[in-house]
Amino acid sequence: MADHLEASVTLPSAPASVSAARAYAVGTLAEWGLPSDSDTADTVRLIVSELATNAVQHTLGQSPTFTVALALERDEQLRIGVTDSHPRWPRRLPAAVQQDNGRGLVIIRWLTAECGGRLTVRPTREGGKTVVIEIPWTLGDRPVTTAAGQEP
Q1: Long-range Cβ pairs for the range 61-64 (8 Å, 24+)
Q2: Which domains does the chain have, with CATH numbers?
Q3: Distance of CA 125 to the CA centre of its chain
Q4: pTM, 2 dp
Q5: pLDDT in tens, 85-99
Q6: Positive or negative, the Cα torsion across 91, 124, 75, 143?
Q7: Do 99 and 91 form a contact (C-beta atoms < 8 A)?
Q8: Dist CA 88 CA 128 (whole Å)
Q9: Which tens digits make up the pLDDT trace of 107-131?
Q10: Coil/strand/helix, residue 21
């Protein structure tokens, strides 16, 4: 495989774009050799879903689009970035048990840490931000298993 692969897609900030972002990310990673039924694909699916949802819901209509960017470095490190043009950075909200939302960033941080990765937020030149997740690529070659430890 190449030393560096990149792909990105820009989508409208609309609820329907969340599923499009997930499909794009998992499809791209499948093209790069990551099985869509692997643990890492499931992790990426959830991370992209949460980040895209945040880009749609929390930009308050001030970011007409968001971009999902993927980069693979030397078959070792996968970088997922979601960029929007809203200047407000994500923040962890106190999530009460009865709340239906407010846990996305907590979920993302937990998944990232569980994979041995890291989360950063970077400003864009245009005044927005990119939430970047970096996780090891080598975790991706294990197929998802059922509770009994059997492949589905």
Answers
A1: 61/13, 62/86, 63/13, 63/128, 64/12, 64/13
A2: 12-91+102-141 (3.30.565.10)
A3: 21
A4: 0.83
A5: 998 887 766 655 555
A6: positive
A7: no
A8: 7
A9: 888 889 998 999 999 999 999 999 9
A10: helix
